């Protein structure tokens, strides 16, 4: 299928279309309810017949989110929303960071990455196992990046995987103040406290303001949403600057 021109907010349907710029079905499944209620039609690369895997060459999550959003927007010729996220462990100097997905090699599985993480933290006391999940979401049109929003969830790294939900490092990430790993939370609980849930909550405002403005690139807009300590259901304490 060849993408059709939809670079602005208008299209042939009732709502403007917005491409979720990821091939990860698990990410898409998380993002859809987070963005529910917006006046957009969410579409996926599969819907567009688009096979794209941009190389993540950025030095930060924001760099990678911006380059992915722009690559998908230009390939599909329509607005796109991309995220980049990962785990930062203080005892490892912030690693794995932007290399979270490639921590144990380019073809590694979640279990391989978790095993390496736990190996590298062997002997590290609980008090020194602090960590956080960080996510940056970028909105782009074919003409440029509109803006970014970010979210953080604080916690620590456990000593063994627990829980059956989620993906990635969720089974070893203890959400601060809950006593449970991210993989032990229900989908609704995770969406309320996760880094992606907070970034998406802030990105909703970005999308709404962009729609109201008539669309088009406004580069440089960014904002943060951070999980407060000790409350599993804490809401965002800020949605960032307006466009």
TrEMBL record:
Keywords: Hydrolase, Magnesium, Metal-binding, Nucleotide metabolism, Nucleotide-binding. It catalyses: XTP + H2O = XMP + diphosphate + H(+); dITP + H2O = dIMP + diphosphate + H(+); ITP + H2O = IMP + diphosphate + H(+). The keyword Magnesium applies. Mg(2+) binds at residues 55, 84. It comes from the Bacteria. The keyword Nucleotide-binding applies. The active site is at residue 84. Its EC number is 3.6.1.66. Binds 1 Mg(2+) ion per subunit. Substrate binds at residues 22-27, 85, 167-170, 190, 195-196. Its cofactor is Mg(2+). GO terms for molecular function: dITP diphosphatase activity; ITP diphosphatase activity; metal ion binding; nucleotide binding; ribonucleoside triphosphate phosphatase activity; XTP diphosphatase activity. Residues 214-243 are annotated as: Disordered. It is an enzyme of class 3 (hydrolase). HAMAP family: Non_canon_purine_NTPase. Belongs to the HAM1 NTPase family. Homodimer. Pyrophosphatase that catalyzes the hydrolysis of nucleoside triphosphates to their monophosphate derivatives, with a high preference for the non-canonical purine nucleotides XTP (xanthosine triphosphate), dITP (deoxyinosine triphosphate) and ITP. Seems to function as a house-cleaning enzyme that removes non-canonical purine nucleotides from the nucleotide pool, thus preventing their incorporation into DNA/RNA and avoiding chromosomal lesions. This is dITP/XTP pyrophosphatase. It comes from uncultured Chloroflexota bacterium.
């Amino acid at each position: 299928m060849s993408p059709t021109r939809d670079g602005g907010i208008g299209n042939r349907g009732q709502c403007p279309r917005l491409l979720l710029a990821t091939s990860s079905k698990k990410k898409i499944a998380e993002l859809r309810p987070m963005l529910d209620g917006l006046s957009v039609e969410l579409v996926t690369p599969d819907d567009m017949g688009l096979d794209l895997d941009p190389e993540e060459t950025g030095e930060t999550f924001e760099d990678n989110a911006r380059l992915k959003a722009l690559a998908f927007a230009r390939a599909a010729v329509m607005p796109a929303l991309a995220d980049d996220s990962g785990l930062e462990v203080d005892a490892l100097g912030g690693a794995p960071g932007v290399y979270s997905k490639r921590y144990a090699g380019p073809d590694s599985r979640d279990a391989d990455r978790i095993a390496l993480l736990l190996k590298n933290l062997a002997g590290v006391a609980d008090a020194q196992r602090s960590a956080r999940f960080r996510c940056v979401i970028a909105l782009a049109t074919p003409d440029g990046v509109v803006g970014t929003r970010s979210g953080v969830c604080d916690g620590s790294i456990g000593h063994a995987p627990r829980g059956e939900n989620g993906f990635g490092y969720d089974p070893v990430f203890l959400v601060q103040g809950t006593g449970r790993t991210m993989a032990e939370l229900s989908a609704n609980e995770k969406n309320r406290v996760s880094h992606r849930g907070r970034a998406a909550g802030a990105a909703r405002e970005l999308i709404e303001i962009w729609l109201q403005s008539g669309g088009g690139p406004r580069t440089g807009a960014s904002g943060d949403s951070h999980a407060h300590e000790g409350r599993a259901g804490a809401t965002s304490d800020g949605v960032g600057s307006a466009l």
